[in-house]
Design a protein that fits this description.
Layout lengths: L1 E9 L2 E8 L6 E6 L6 H14 L3 E6 L4 H13 L5 E10 L7 E8 L4 H10 L4 H20 L14 E5 L5 E9 L6 E9 L3 H8 L2 H8 L4 E5 L4 E9 L9 H24 L2
Parallel strand pairs: 3-4, 4-5
Antiparallel strand pairs: 1-2, 2-3, 5-6, 7-8, 8-9, 9-11, 10-11
């Protein structure tokens, strides 16, 4: 999970914590309580899920009342696959004279959650997914050597993209195996992706000339209004991940492009 924001506005209300899954870019809303669950927060978490189009919703409370446990179970019964509701009870525990530690007990989870997770792990991957995993495995090894401490990403994804933290919620660096901006050829893309709206985009656009000069490669400035997001990217056209003999060349280009983007954009991010 990557933190997208705290106290995220949803109409007149605000969601405690909003995450996105790094592999599938789906939202997870977390509502925290320091007292027993109540109707007010149960209703709010459903409102947040609807307003933010969340895939999963997590309610954390010291005491999940029986009626609210039943409500979460019912919601999971009527919720479509690949989404659901969790009820988690939080406790402080000590061992001997140790400082208190946090213990989270999962009380409610989507039906067959453990089985579905196991099926995702164990299902047969397609040839394309296996190729992506092989590519990202080698990529991450080289990435961690070149940029120690930047990211803790370890497991290679079986999709065409990967994200790296920027230090600010809602903003992430990334590399993707994709198409050129005009859609004509296979390309590699290194990028900074802004999950938030126009305000952040305009801030970066103000530094466009400076960023272009520091990056030293053709920079593609891409507002994505249909996603409520935007992207600042560089492309390497005619890059086909099926060409395994070119992987080292591709890794070097991707790492270099990420380094250039980070050098140009991180000072702006740090000032936010």
């Amino acid at each position: 999970l990557e933190l997208e924001g705290r106290e995220v506005a949803v109409g007149p209300f605000s969601a405690d914590l909003v995450f996105k899954t790094t592999e599938s870019d789906r939202r997870v809303v977390v509502e925290n309580l320091l007292e027993a669950s109540d109707h007010d927060h149960l209703g709010k978490m459903i409102t947040y899920a609807a307003g933010l189009e969340a895939a999963y919703v997590v309610l954390i409370t010291p005491q999940l009342r029986p009626e609210h446990r039943s409500a979460l179970l019912w919601l999971n019964d009527v919720t479509k696959q690949d989404s659901g509701f969790f009820g988690i009870e939080v406790r402080a525990v000590t061992i001997a004279d140790s400082p208190p530690g946090v213990l989270l007990d999962v009380v409610v989870e989507p039906d067959d959650w453990a089985r579905s997770v196991a099926s995702v792990v164990n299902r047969e991957l397609s040839e394309t997914q296996r190729r992506y995993m092989a590519w990202w495995t080698e990529f991450l090894d080289a990435f961690h050597q070149r940029f120690p401490g930047w990211s803790r990403a370890a497991g290679p994804p079986n999709v065409n993209w990967i994200n790296f933290p920027s230090g600010k919620s809602g903003i992430a660096y990334g590399v993707a195996v994709t198409r050129s901006p005009d859609g004509t050829v296979n390309s590699l893309r290194a990028e900074l992706y802004l999950h938030k709206g126009d305000e952040l985009w305009e801030l970066f656009v103000q530094h466009r000339d400076e960023v272009d000069a520091v990056v030293g490669l053709p920079v593609s400035w891409e507002p994505l209004p249909e996603r409520g997001a935007s992207r600042i990217a560089v492309y390497r056209p005619d890059s086909d991940p099926a060409d395994t003999e070119a992987w080292e060349e591709y890794r070097l280009w991707s790492s270099d492009a990420l380094e250039r983007l980070r050098k140009a954009l991180q000072p702006i991010i740090d000032e936010l």
